[in-house]
Every structure is written in C-alpha cells, then in structure tokens.
C-alpha cells in the first residue's frame, strides 16, 4: 500500500512539474541572471532617524544564491535565498525601498511547481528571501515595545495558539515591512509581464510605496512594495493589535476582519483621512495632516511620518499585468499543500479556547507563540 501511495505521489509531482515546465499554469518567465557564489554578510544599515535600523536588508557582493544545506526529502526540493548588495530602489527623494523580495512558506522544502514559481521572482539585481516558520517566529518574538507596547500580549491571542495561521502571517508581514521594508509577495503569486519594468519606472516618482489593487478594486495584501518605517504599516499593526485584544471569542476569530484585508483597508482610510471606500482608484495618496501630527506627537524626535505617500496601482482591468495572483488552483493547489505540509486554514476552528482575548490572557501564563 505504501509503495502504491508513493507511486501516486511521484506521478502527481511529475504531472504538475510538466505543467509548470510547459507553462500550462501560465506563469510568466522572469528575467534575471544569478551567480552561484558564496555570499558574504554585509549588514547594510538604514541612515534614517528612526530607532530601529534595517537588519541585513541586503547582503553579498552581487546577485547570489546562498549555498544549500538541504534537509528536504524527495520529491521535495529546497528553495534557497538569493542575496544582493544593491542598496535601495529610490522611488522617493528621501525614502527608499530595499530591492529584496520577501515571501513566506511553512518550510523551504517545496514541490517542484512551487519551487519553479519562486524562481520566477529571481531577478537580476534583487534579493529574494523565503521565510519559513522559524524565520517568521524570529520576527514576531523580537522586542517591539518601543513602537508597539501591547503587541506581545496581542500575539498570544493569535489563532491556533500561535502555530501557523493566516493571522500570524498577516502580523509577520506588517512587522517585516515596517522594520525592513522591501517587496512582499504571496508564494503562489507570479510576476506579471510588466511588473519588473514598472518597478524600475517608478524610480523617479515621488512615492515611497506601491500597493496593488485586486480584481475587486480593493487594496490587496498579496503584493506590497513598502519603504521601511512607512506609516501605513504602523497603522496596520496598531489596528490589528487593538482588534486582537478585543476579540470576544477566540474560537470564532474572523481573520479577514481582525488582522487581514479589512485592517489594510481601515489603515489606508485613516492614512488618507477619508472614510473607507468601496472601490479604490489607482493613483498617489498622501498622508493626512491629522495622522502626521498624531504620529509626530507620539514620536517627536523622529521624522518617518513626513512626506509619506502610497501609490496604488492596478485595478480590475490592469491587476494581472503587475501580479498574477494564486496561480495554483483547485486540486493542484490542494495537492501541493498536502505534499509540502502547508495548511489550508479556511473553515478551521481558530483557537482551542472560546474565551475572549482578555480572559485568555488572564488565564494563560507566558507566550503561546510557537
């Protein structure tokens, strides 16, 4: 029976790999040349006025793929980071976005189709980092009290007692982009035909972030280009912390509302000083004077809240030319998730407890994040 099951798994892998190779999944090729050299740490630092520096945003002396230390078992394949010492993409006169693409997966061990899709993001002149569970926890468990004093308590109310979940990925994404900046993409996205050239064309504009609209003309979380210490990420974290701490029943926590897309929508509305919009138009949006003054009052010795903008790109008719979302579908995606140990969280009980977040915190001792 085990032999038959293994044969079926291998056959499925080969079929999916063949579909990727022949481009039946319609994943566009990404241009780029990478050298297979050993990277040398550099530790590039941010020269802004904020308390936290960007840690290891870009390392190496060219576009390098880090050497393998594979612990993956066939048919899974290890996906390695690519590093680049190239500073920032200057899409604002005083703010820059590190040329590093970030994505997350439960593990670096992936099926061939997923690994091939990650390779689509290996562009010349850009770093690429795949953050596994250990890397995600490393970000979440840092001391964030200087900016988010209630964050550590809120994280203890994450779904599934701190194990992998969509809400945990949301919080990690906000914190990573707040501290380090860079380009975030979901691991099952593929770059659209015009994405790479569009990123370069924004080099001379007056914006310091790009957020792509989804097909509903709403802000999407699946692809964001953010400069370090951008107020939109600060507002997202602040709002998500508040919503986590006020959850009334952890077992039925609504991730979409508490940490997900509604948080980004609400934070964007606050950023521009307008009510939430059902349909968002592409264009450049500046920070409202109310938010700027509020942040300046909270952090009087810092300047990261000045002259900040958000450039919204895409829309229902243009989204695919920038980013192709969820390129794996149906049984293909389900099989890939099963083979790589990734979880499909939709429909699962969010938490073992049906207590409120505050009651859970009072009852439990220590962090439950794992």
TrEMBL record:
InterPro entries associated with the record: GlycoTrfase_DXD_sugar-bd_CS (IPR007577), Nucleotide-diphossugar_trans (IPR029044), Och1-like (IPR039367)
Pfam families xrefs: Gly_transf_sug
GO biological process: protein N-linked glycosylation
Sequence segments annotated as region (Disordered): 35-70
GO terms, molecular function: alpha-1,6-mannosyltransferase activity
GO cellular component terms given for this protein: mannan polymerase complex
Superkingdom of this protein's organism: Eukaryota
Name of the featured protein: Uncharacterized protein
Organism: Amphora coffeiformis
